[in-house]
Amino acid sequence: MLLLVLRRVLATVPVMAVVALVVFLMIRLTPGDPAAVLAGDNATLDQIQRIRANLGLDEPLWHQFAAWVGQLARGDLGTSIFTQLPVTTLIGQRVEPTLMLALTTMVFSILVAVPLGVLAAWKAGTWIDRLIMVVAVVAFSFPVFVLGYLLVYQFGISLRWLPTQGYRSPFADPWGFVRHMTLPALALSSIYIALITRITRASVLEVLGEDYIRTARAKGQTEAKVLFRHALGNAAVPIVTIVGIGVALLIGGAVVTETVFNIPGLGRLVVDAILRRDYPIIQGLILVFSLVYILINLLIDIAYTALDPRIRY
Amino acid sequence: MARAQTLPEEPVRAARRAPVLAFVRRYPVAGLAALILGLIVLAALLAPVLWTVDPKALAPTQRMRMPSAAHWFGTDQFGRDVWSRVVYGAQVSLIVALAVATISVIAGTLIAVVSTYIRWLDGLVMRIMDGLMAIPGILLAIALVSLSGASRLTVIMAITIPEIPRVVRLVRSVVLSVREEPYVEAAISVGTPLPQLLWRHVLPNCVPPLIVQATYIAASAMLTEAILSFLGAGTPPEFPSWGNMMAEGRTFFPIAPRIVLIPGVALALTILAVNVLGDALRDRLDPKLAKRTGGLR
């Protein structure tokens, strides 16, 4: 088991190396002079030069890469051009709302999507199944910001039930947190719920045809136990996989959701960085988000062995 | 009598004569989706004659007007006609969808075929694809756009690059499984040159799953373009696109929600139509994938 974990961890090293290399080369291989683009239209030569120095673009390539990897290894993601603060500090200030939004959405989505998918598989071919699948396609196609604005319009402006802007920390104001988080989490979860529901339905449906399901039913097991223990248990691997892959959707979606609902998280940091052409922040966030994505999928990979004893690497 | 004899053959013949009609009959919802998509494409093509005015024309005296006979969807905060902007916005979304789907499918297929036939390259290419897939696509696109400046071409390239790994993986898996097929081994054994082998025997197997994948890429490209424009890293403001219409209307949402909601619904409807069409195509062309993923990629 330990050896297996070690091997999976080592397997992520080349992926991380490629991510670092892609991010490193992106700014250097972009046609034109990125320093001039970042400086904006009215920049002086001096300003462009300063940005070039900030990004380390004025040294030989291999030298730049060595220095940059060294920085990363020390946890240094560079310095913001606009605020002159370390990128890690800026990310630290903004991480809580995004983390809370992502976690709430993830838990909510799984709690809704898995039972829905099991229900659809159980009732396969009936109108219940078809209804769930239609809703899933529609939910998957509705862009998170369009859904977000529809929710704001309905529950914020028409009914005035919930606040539509801002964020409250759950540690300082738990009730405020719930009220502020409901609409953003609903908007962000629609695509994730659709994804998980469809995979759950497909994999449970496949398992339901197996002999051991018939055996379980034959020995008088209750239908709920057959569905949730025997069927869902054996259908778990693809579901957990999609939960991990879906994290990429969640990250992209969180950036947009925060803009719609004015949540001061990492998404807002990105948008401000776009407006101010503050490239080090964008670069730092790409690295952090990619690392999170890789780590989550690593954990899921390791969890497979717990879920499915047949899988051995 | 003669009529009765021909009856059982009819569906088969109908399918042969008009495959589109048979497809629609079997997947009525997809037929509806295709109709909606066709209307949107038509609207984009015929934009100048569809009772539109110049979508960029400012009219300071006509700001924030409610829908009327002159302005079907009202006007925005600069007095621009929302109907015209939505119709012209369809052009941006559809061009991006078409361009991204085409470029990523061609580039991905080339990369996959070359790397599966050059052994030492394969591992390297797949590691690079793994790495690219680990970077959230929207952030990668944002970075690319902010580095090279927002233009329509940059936006298309920035959306294409994160889509390529998916195509590479798909084509690679097909090529690897086809390579073991007896007819491919037979073709190799009679000395078929590699280019002909790929063109005649391997690539045709990739076409059905690629068509399905291309529809999903088109849908996701439209979504990404809208998100980029919405966040301010997409289509430049001088071209009306659904994403930047929503971005510009954002501040006025509480007083004039339609400025944001109309392009939003247009976007959602188009993506929905493409996805429904993709699902039907997948059921038809790639039943194995349909079973494995339960839809959606």
Automatic annotation (TrEMBL), chain A:
It comes from Salinarimonas soli. The chain crosses the membrane at residues 9-27, 99-119, 131-157, 177-195, 235-261, 281-307. InterPro entries: BPD_transp_1_N, MetI-like, MetI-like_sf. The keyword Transmembrane helix applies. This is ABC transporter permease. It holds the Pfam family BPD_transp_1_N. Belongs to the binding-protein-dependent transport system permease family. The lineage of its organism: Bacteria, Pseudomonadati, Pseudomonadota, Alphaproteobacteria, Hyphomicrobiales. One of its GO terms (biological process) is transmembrane transport. It is a multi-pass membrane protein. Keywords: Cell membrane, Membrane, Transmembrane, Transmembrane helix, Transport. Residues 95-304 form the ABC transmembrane type-1 domain.
TrEMBL record, chain B:
GO terms for cellular component: plasma membrane. It is found in: Cell membrane. Keywords: Cell membrane, Membrane, Transmembrane, Transmembrane helix, Transport. Residues 90-278 form the ABC transmembrane type-1 domain. The chain crosses the membrane at residues 29-53, 94-118, 124-147, 210-235, 255-278. The keyword Ligase does not apply. Pfam families: BPD_transp_1. It is a multi-pass membrane protein. SUPFAM superfamilies: MetI-like. Its main location: membrane. One of its GO terms (biological process) is transmembrane transport. It comes from the Bacteria. InterPro entries: BP-dependent_transpt_permease (IPR050366), MetI-like (IPR000515), MetI-like_sf (IPR035906). PANTHER family: ABC TRANSPORTER PERMEASE PROTEIN, OLIGOPEPTIDE TRANSPORT SYSTEM PERMEASE PROTEIN APPC. Belongs to the binding-protein-dependent transport system permease family. This is ABC transporter permease. It comes from Salinarimonas soli.
